[in-house]
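Cont'd.
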Amino acid sequence: MQRDERPRRTKKFGHERGRVALLLLAPSVIHLVWWIGIPVVATFALAFTDYDILAGTVTFNGLDNFQEIFSDSTWNASIWHTVVFTFFTVPVAMAIAVVLALLLNVKMRGSAWYRTAVFMPHVTATVAIALVWMWMFEPRLGVVNTMLGWVGIDGPVWLADPDWALTAVIVVSIWKGIGIKMLIYLAALQAMPNDVYEAAKIDGASQVRQFFSITLPLLKPATFFVLVVSIIDSFQAFDQLYVLTPDGGPGNSTTVMTYEIYRTAFKEFNMGAACAQSVVLFAFLLVLMLISRRLTGKEDDVR
Amino acid sequence: MSAEKLSAGAATAVTPRTSRPLLARRLRRVALHLVLGTVSLAMAIPFLWMIITSLKTDPDLASYPPGLLPRIWDWDNYPEALEYAPFGTYFRNSLFISLGHTALNLALASMAGYALARLPFRGSTVIFMGVLATMMIPTYTKIVPQYLIAKGIPFFGGNDYLGRGGHGWLDSWWGLIIPGALTPFAIFLFRQFYLSLPRELEEAARIDGMGEFGIYARVMTPLVKPAIATVGLLTFESSWNNFLWPLIITTDTDLRVIQVGLSAFQQADQNAWAYMMAGTTLATVPMVALFLLTQRYFVQGFANSGIK
């Protein structure tokens, strides 16, 4: 009798565990399927349909949406703006971030303070920050042109100038993006194995040599990660562009893919075309991820 | 000490020897502080300028070239701004939604994370893979159907049982709170924390005759307080700063969150800079304060999101 009880009890526990697991998971699984799973599938499906939002009817129309969006010069320009925006935002912010991370990794008084200052823009709302920068970019009374005036430069009207609006948005985005990149680099630096440096020191490697032969190669996984995440974020940047340059900027000079998706879906209520645009954006992100993975090699210790 | 050693190379690529004279070390430190001080100031200038502007009077704002500090510190801008635009309402809405998101995310994600980490059952791996997959879905790959789903929720906002005819969850607290209430990243983070707890604890509780739900709620969850703090703060932060979702699903001024309210205010009246900066300060200061008080958890959470 005594011996029988053990397996039975385990079995009972097993049942209970399974039941509780289901109960604990159910709300989350339903939520994720409902608000992420179904929408993702729906985006790909709706891209090939004409969705009438008033009647709620869906009619298959093949590749019409794709033909429509790619014959739209604003959409094509928005792809180009997205690429330019990313091309200038990501590498500059990454370069500044890695240098700052290396400097902040030195143990010294005040480094927590510096780190906080660099990271602060990341935790504050992009909308609020964009408004502040908007005031700073004010052509006559703004602090940017005032400071340029100190060194004898007559600043442009920034956000109202088609040639400078995108540059202004890029400056804000770099400023905003440095903090999180710096933090990921800093975490990577602090996780570095100390013994490798000890060994290198015993072998008489100079600090310059240590930096190029040890630190930089060890930073490769972090760099890969920061690169991929930054590109994805940058391709999806919306808030600062929407606030700093409403309606796609002067002469559509700052329309990006996200803004076009927003406009097509929620201003024109052309849901099918907006889904087609989302599919194109998704394709871009996928290709970029695959390319960066190829370039930096497969790093298994990063996601 | 280890940090100093390994980064010294980067900081002083110019001095090759480790045993350098004290003076050189001191100079290096000063240079380092100068560089970092300048960068920090550059990062802080927009915040300082925001606060300074929010305290300036109209003649101060219009003076050219702009003065660095206000001639008169106009603290009345804040109560006036609150009357000029309903920043108070926006602020309350944001707070309500952020707290709702935080509470729901903590409850749902900890439950799911616990089940995935500690309860063996068939299909556990598949569900975990699914959670990881949803983590990687870009916002714009789902935003349009999410809007359509919110609009088509049956029996809400004048909808029939097929979700047609009305506006569903658009312009409602439901739409503002429910869709964003759970983040797969929170599930992932909770799972990692629960995994790190020793097995003996749950075994002991089980032998004492405690139910599985009790083990989750009363034994294990109190032990993952750092996870609760991290997830809670990250959720609150991203909810408070969220813009796109509230922008597309609300048109009603009474339901505007602070970010959308600020953006609408900017498009309506670009000349009330002092009021706008007062509103921006109100939107920013709570997050900054929260961040300063709880930096450790924020930094952990953000760093964890980068490195597994």
